[in-house]
Design a protein that fits this description.
about 650 residues, alpha/beta, Signal recognition particle alu RNA binding heterodimer, srp9/1, Rossmann fold, 6-stranded mixed beta sheet, 20 helices
Length: about 650
């Protein structure tokens, strides 16, 4: 049988019954328990009544009557064993023998009585056996010795755990077990092609050595979470047929100083013993952050671990057959020394999957599942932009769960729609009861979003709009892009701002007062406008200048730095952000005022049906714009099971566009 790939190097199987590092063998535990139980039983069990026992008074009377033939007297205990004469027929014991207990020493009168009645008597002084003599002494001594032995072995086990704290915690995946290959990685043809050079080097290192070429020592996989970086690293090991040592960055960190550096040394020593191997460090940014940025200075434990890793990567040559692969989604915070040539020579970008990649990933995850004929995976892939491989796997699983809840034995297209809405926006909150006033406000709020999304030329197509609470939202306007976008034009971003502000503006237009329902819309619109001014150069007053992202502060790095611009520039930035938002709000007000009939019609239909599709929204807008106010409105609402989205936002545009 193939060995367990998770087994640590050198941790062989223990023989049956062998003692573990910090415990006794099972047979010793059972033996000790049996001894204790036996002693307890012996102490609790009292001797049974002897049927031949008589009282000492009766014994003297029988002697005086002359019916006792002989007696044997124990000088230590005073116990008397005797026999009646053969012709004595009234024996109280129903036998010719009896037992009684007298005094330890007999008086001369008693002795004379035995002589007068012709009783043969004998005094005995029996000696106890070895066990009876020494057991009371040896038992407590033995228990004390066993206790100290147990304490010693427990201390040795704890000491062994402390001494082994510097050993690497890497999981070893042996080549004897079938491993992951590139066939198990759906999509990402470009990534496979770029990383296939490492596989060729591990399989045929001689080809590179003949012409003096050097294969990369380290490869850094960079990409968002859930894109399959770990799976790709395992596929490289499976294709090359070499052992795979997997460890996370947090495994190096411990409360003891120097443990991380020790584990790094042990990790590379283990890899060298294997000849050819791949070392995979997941989340390397946990130990590979820029040095000198923390409050601990050069003696910080994390920095010592990083120093040791840099030294070890310099210590092995390319011909040794050891390749290091690391994964991170924060390459911007890694130490420059870690990324220089000779260490992590190459960075491989693992982006979110494109349309074709998502289709292949869905094909992998639907294997072995019962899929109905109405499921079009191409359509599902088009409706899931921005989802990673992990998100798609979760989508398929959620669709299967929806099918089970609905009592179906196959997964249908409606289940995928419901699963997508649940993954994007969360579960419906059927228990949330809104008052009529709140429900009307939510209906106009979502109608404002939907109307702007349907009328603006560059906005993403409207998928559905609903006022059913779901997740943290009271209502949803959902947009889905028609194609993948890699760069975003300014007019597209401005239209997205109009859609975000559409809910708030619709409430003010109808009720002449705002509400707290637009909180999330305002936060995201402000963030996007800030990026337009600070990062994307979309402000005439600021011009072609950028100051980077306003992300979370990296302690010791950003705090120690100075501002890139003056206070006067900061005031200009604030004014430009405000100007962008006010201009788009003005556009939004004009658009909704011009189409007030469509806004009212959409709100009424939402109050009646709660959920309507994007196609139906377009039809209702045409009806509202057509002449004749008496034109009947007969529309078919989308089933409530078709899904929901985020509160008062355009779901398809919920993420801030980033040209990078």
């Amino acid at each position: 049988m193939a060995p367990d790939p998770h087994q640590q190097p050198g941790s062989g199987d223990r023989p049956k019954g062998a003692r573990s590092d910090q415990g006794w063998p099972r047979w010793a535990v059972w033996l000790l328990g049996g001894i204790v139980m036996g002693l307890i039983a012996l102490s609790l069990v009292s001797p049974a009544d002897n049927p031949n026992e008589i009282s000492y008074r009766d014994f003297i009377e029988f002697v005086e009557d002359g019916v006792v033939d002989e007696v044997v007297i124990n000088s230590q205990t005073g116990e008397i064993d005797g026999k009646f004469k053969a012709d004595f027929e009234e024996s109280p014991t129903q036998s010719d023998s009896f037992v009684t207990t007298g005094n330890d020493e007999f008086s001369d009168v008693d002795r004379q009585l035995f002589v007068d009645r012709n009783v043969d008597y004998e005094f005995t002084n029996p000696q106890p056996g070895f066990l009876a003599s020494w057991l009371p002494l040896l038992l407590p001594i033995g228990l004390i010795i066993l206790f100290f032995m147990w304490m010693q072995r427990r201390a040795q086990g704890q000491m062994g755990g402390i001494m082994s704290i510097g050993r690497s915690k890497a999981k070893t995946y042996s080549t004897e077990r079938p491993g992951t290959t590139f066939e198990d990685v759906a999509g990402y043809a470009g990534v496979k092609e770029e990383i296939n050079e490492v596989v060729d080097f591990l399989k045929n290192p001689g080809r590179f050595g003949e012409i003096g070429a050097r294969s990369p020592k380290g490869i850094l996989l960079v990409g968002p979470p859930g894109t399959g970086k770990t799976l790709i690293a395992r596929a490289v090991a499976g294709e090359a047929g070499v052992p795979f040592l997997s460890v996370t960055g947090s495994d190096f960190m411990e409360m003891f100083v120097g443990v991380g550096a020790s584990r790094v040394r042990d990790l590379f020593d283990s890899a060298r013993k294997m000849g050819k191997a791949i070392i995979f460090v997941d989340e390397i940014d946990s130990i590979g952050r820029k040095r000198g940025a923390g409050l601990g200075g050069g003696h910080d434990e994390r920095e010592q671990t990083l120093n040791q890793m840099l030294s070890e990567m310099d210590g092995f040559e390319a011909h040794e057959g050891i390749v290091m692969i690391a994964a991170t989604n924060r390459p911007d915070i890694l130490d420059p020394a870690l990324l220089r040539p000779g260490r992590f020579d190459r960075q491989v970008i693992v982006p979110l999957p494109e349309l074709d990649d998502r289709k292949q990933i869905l094909d992998v995850h639907v294997r072995g599942r019962k899929i109905a004929g109405d499921v079009d995976l191409d359509l599902v892939a088009r409706g899931t932009p921005g989802m990673s491989g992990a998100d798609l796997a979760n989508l398929v699983n959620e669709a299967a769960l929806h099918a089970v809840r609905g009592g179906d034995n196959v997964i249908r297209a409606s289940h995928f729609d419901s699963a997508r809405d649940r993954v994007l926006m969360g579960a419906r909150r059927e228990s949330t009861a809104l008052s009529e006033t709140e429900k009307e406000a939510v209906a106009y709020h979502e109608s404002g979003h939907a109307l702007c999304a349907a009328l603006l030329p560059t906005a993403d197509p409207l998928h559905k709009v609903t006022i059913i609470p779901s997740g943290m939202a009271l209502g949803v306007t959902m947009q889905l892009p028609e194609e993948e976008r890699h760069i975003y034009r300014q007019d597209y971003i401005e239209d997205r701002l109009v859609v975000m502000l559409g809910g708030r503006m619709a409430e003010e237009l109808v009720f002449n007062i705002g509400s707290t329902g637009a909180n999330d819309d305002l936060v995201r619109a402000t963030e996007m406008a800030t990026k337009m001014v600070r990062e994307w150069g979309m402000s005439e007053a600021i011009g072609p200048m950028a100051w980077g992202s306003q992300g979370q502060v990296f302690l010791g790095d950003d705090m120690m730095g100075t501002k890139d611009y003056s206070d006067e520039t900061a005031r200009v930035i604030d004014k430009e952000i405000q100007k962008i938002l006010v201009d788009q709000e003005t556009r939004c007000r004009a658009l909704l005022s011009e189409n007030r009939n469509a806004l009212d019609l959409l709100a009424r239909q939402l109050l009646e049906h709660e959920t309507i599709s994007g196609v139906e929204v377009d039809r209702l807008i045409d009806v509202a714009r057509s002449p004749g106010p008496g034109t009947p409105v007969t529309e078919t609402a989308v089933s409530p099971d078709s899904g929901v989205a985020d509160s008062g936002v355009a779901v398809g545009s919920s993420d801030s566009p980033d040209a990078s």
